Request: fold
Amino acid sequence: MALDDTRAPRLAVVIGAGGGLGRAFVKELRSEPGWTKVVGVGRRRPDDWPEDPRLPFLVANLLDEDALADLASALSALGSPGLILIATGLLHEPGLMPEKAMKTVTAASLSRLFEVNAVLPALICKHLAPLLPRDERSVIAALSARVGSIGDNRLGGWHAYRASKAALNMLIRCQAIELARERPLAICAVLHPGTVDTPLSAPFARASRSVEPPQTAAARLLKVIHQLEPADSGDFFDYDGAPIPW
Reply:
């Protein structure tokens, strides 16, 4: 991926860069030759974030539209995003765990998981997708989960999480349709990273047959991203690049 000095600096942007998988994406992208800067975005700058001009970190409240508008302006000042990775998500937190039965679903759990897993990525797309170039390939991708597939649901359970990820999938599909009208070379997709050794999956990792370290998961997802074509926009893929049913 050669740089063209006549164009604006090319940015890779990782939303949720303070998390385990987000940090791994930043590390992998830093080693790729095509990016002028790899920009981390999150609610706070990690204390150990490197002091490197190629790795700026922008702080933003991702559920605040004024903050997202400011974030869009700050990114525009840095360059032109060729990749926007939305690596945010919530499965559990104190007082909230995946449900085993519908009788344990609450309005609070549904609202909280929809807010983080569906509303937040939708607002990011609203404010940041317009920054993608009009005349060259670019990608905006969000991390989803296989359990968000309605067609692949054979076990039930985890109702609020499944529903919030299914909503994310629909919103990304809608964004892809809109994006194609003005940016036909842009790709908008959702990706399933598998079970990754991060705090999000830690309480459930023992039940998984395959748990990958964040660096491995990030590398294989970036391989999938780099292989996507505009015809793949609006689709749902796993970490091997195989399509997942909606």
